[in-house]
Each structure stands twice: as structure tokens, then as C-alpha cells.
From TrEMBL:
GO terms for biological process: double-strand break repair via homologous recombination. The lineage of its organism: Eukaryota, Fungi, Fungi incertae sedis, Mucoromycota, Mucoromycotina. It comes from Phascolomyces articulosus. Gene3D superfamilies: P-loop containing nucleotide triphosphate hydrolases (3.40.50.300). It is found in: Chromosome; Nucleus. One of its GO terms (cellular component) is Smc5-Smc6 complex. InterPro entries: P-loop_NTPase (IPR027417), RecF/RecN/SMC_N (IPR003395). It comes from the Eukaryota. Belongs to the SMC family. SMC6 subfamily. Keywords: ATP-binding, Chromosome, Coiled coil, DNA damage, DNA recombination, DNA repair, Nucleotide-binding, Nucleus. SUPFAM superfamilies: P-loop containing nucleoside triphosphate hydrolases (SSF52540). This is RecF/RecN/SMC N-terminal domain-containing protein.
Length: 202
């Protein structure tokens, strides 16, 4: 039978209107949720920008501080929009440091020891903004001479002792005889490999 009665048409219309009203309410709720999430995201981005700014300022200050310990100077230039970090270091010899003069170098033109020391300074500066309970550094002194290595080790140890809430692990293939164990310093030395046994096996 085609068609329907007036009563059936009224009931069907009421159902459709109820469905329409429910859909409008759901849309309003979703729109409100969208605005709330958008506002929350904007607030988080603002806080993240402030947090990044504080880390940047702290890293710049600490990098300059660590370089100055050896009589050098330098600066960090963060280009966040390009995701790039520019490092500039001014190296001073003992005579130049006393006279207050420096020879400017790009980080790419530094010697092996100077570059390694600058990298240590950069790592320590960046670590200041990282709350990690465990910090590990492997073969950091491979390209360092005796002077740079001694200065780097002293700076690393001083920083590690200042950070009492973190554990520092330094791994080096070099001689660690100048490292003195203490209540907060443990030195573990591995046995030298048996070269003779390796050659006989081959």
C-alpha cells in the first residue's frame, strides 16, 4: 500500500526533527571542543616557545662560561626557523690571553684538540637544559692532546660533581691514571686485549 496516514507522517516528522536537533547539539559540542583544543594548543606553543628561549639563553651563557675557563671565547647562534646552530670560537694562546687579544676561528678550522674542547663545552652547555638522571660520553678525548685532555677532564669532573642528582659515565680508550677515585668517583679499567691470542687464532 502506497502512502501513509497523517498520524504516521507526524511521527516520522517528529523523529526527523529530533534527529536534526541531536545533530545540531553534537555539532555545537564538537565546535566548542575544537575551540578549546585550539586554545590549549596555542597556550602550549607559547609555553614551548618560552621554554626554548630559556634553554637557548642558558646554553649561550654556559657555552661562553666553559670556553672562558680555558681562556677562549665564543658564542652560539640559534636559528630556530632554519633548524640550524652556528658555533663561533675565538682561541687564545697563553700570551694572547694575557694581552687580551684573540685569533678568531670558524669551528670548521679549529684543530682537533680545539674542536674537541669546543664540543665538550657545547655538550655541557646543552646538558644544562636536560634533566636526565644518566649522562654518558664515549671517546670524547680521542683527538685531544695532553693539555686539552687534562682541561676537559677537569671541567667534566667539576660539572659532574656539581650535578648531584645525575650520574655521569665517561668512557675513554686513553690512560686514566690521572683520575683519582673518591667517594663520588669510581674508575673501572678493562684489561688490555690479548693481541697474541688473536693473531694465533687467525
Amino acid at each position: 500500500r502506497l502512502g501513509c496516514s497523517i498520524e504516521e507522517a507526524e511521527l516520522d516528522a517528529k523523529d526527523k526533527l529530533q534527529t536534526y536537533d541531536d545533530a545540531k547539539k553534537a555539532i555545537r559540542m564538537m565546535e566548542g571542543l575544537r575551540k578549546f583544543l585550539g586554545s590549549s594548543l596555542d597556550q602550549r606553543m607559547d609555553r614551548w616557545s618560552e621554554f626554548r628561549m630559556f634553554i637557548t639563553l642558558a646554553a649561550k651563557a654556559h657555552f661562553t662560561y666553559y670556553l672562558h675557563k680555558r681562556g677562549d671565547s665564543g658564542y652560539l647562534k640559534f636559528q630556530h626557523d632554519k633548524e640550524k646552530l652556528v658555533v663561533r670560537v675565538s682561541v687564545s694562546t697563553a700570551d694572547q690571553f694575557q694581552k687580551g687579544s684573540t685569533r678568531h676561528k670558524d669551528s670548521k678550522s679549529l684543530s682537533g684538540g680545539e674542536k674537541s674542547y669546543s664540543q665538550i663545552s657545547l655538550l655541557l652547555a646543552m646538558w644544562q637544559g636536560i634533566a636526565s638522571p644518566l649522562v654518558c660520553l664515549d671517546e670524547f678525548d680521542v683527538y685531544m692532546d695532553a693539555v686539552n685532555r687534562k682541561q676537559s677532564m677537569r671541567m667534566l669532573m667539576e660539572t659532574a660533581l656539581e650535578q648531584s642528582d645525575a650520574q655521569y659515565i665517561f668512557i675513554t680508550p686513553q690512560d686514566a691514571s690521572n683520575m683519582k677515585p673518591g667517594p663520588f668517583v669510581k674508575v673501572h679499567r678493562l684489561n688490555d686485549p690479548n693481541r697474541r691470542q688473536t693473531n694465533e687464532t687467525e
